[in-house]
């Protein structure tokens, strides 16, 4: 009788352990699915932010040329003097719209003026894993000439960051501005816009 009780107890313990293991497996699987969904949602949100940031900066740069057709940035190294001259650190936050008259003080792209609008805007911040949007207006910069908007990947080894930028440029609303794949070399990896001023 005692052996039967021990066997029954062992049988119940085995099933109880099996049930606990099964519940644990279901919990871990659900957790992994949730984590994967969160990562996918976060990636999608970042892609939307980068797309929105790029279009916003491009619009501001183009506004300088459209609203100030006689502008001249008076920088001998510029590819096109109608566009803002690039800053020393290449960030878009310091860009100024070219002055029309030599005596006129150039207006910061984001502070507004009677010529380019009175709204005080902020340039987009750097997103996690990426630099701020940067800008070139040059005849020679590491093999890239013209008026270009670009972004760098902070972690050059991140294939996920490269893939995200490449998927961003393939969107129909971005393809005209960013037709080429991310340039991995020279490092850091960069996504360049087309030349905004084809001459």
- Return residue spans where pLDDT drops below 50 for at least 5 consecutive residues: none
For the largest beta-sheet, the strand count, sense and barrel status come to: 3 strands, antiparallel
Count the DSSP helices. Answer: 2
Q: Going across the biggest sheet, name each strand in turn.
A: 3-4-5
Order of helices and strands: HEEEEHE
The N- to C-terminal Cα distance equals 98 Å
Shape: elongated
Strand content of the residues, in percent?
5-15%
DSSP strand count: 5
Radius of gyration: 27 Å
- Nearest-integer average pLDDT: 78
Class computed from helices, strands and strand pairing: alpha+beta
Roughly what percent helix?
Answer: 25-40%
Written account of the structure:
By secondary structure, the chain is α+β, with helices and mostly antiparallel strands. 39% of the residues lie in helices and 12% in strands. It has helices spanning 2-67, 159-169; strands at residues 96-97, 107-108, 134-141, 144-152, 190-192. The strands form two sheets. Strands 3-4-5 form a three-stranded antiparallel β-sheet, with helices on one face. β3 and β4 (144-152) form a beta hairpin. α1 (2-67) crosses α2. The chain is elongated. The model has no long low-confidence stretch (mean pLDDT 78).
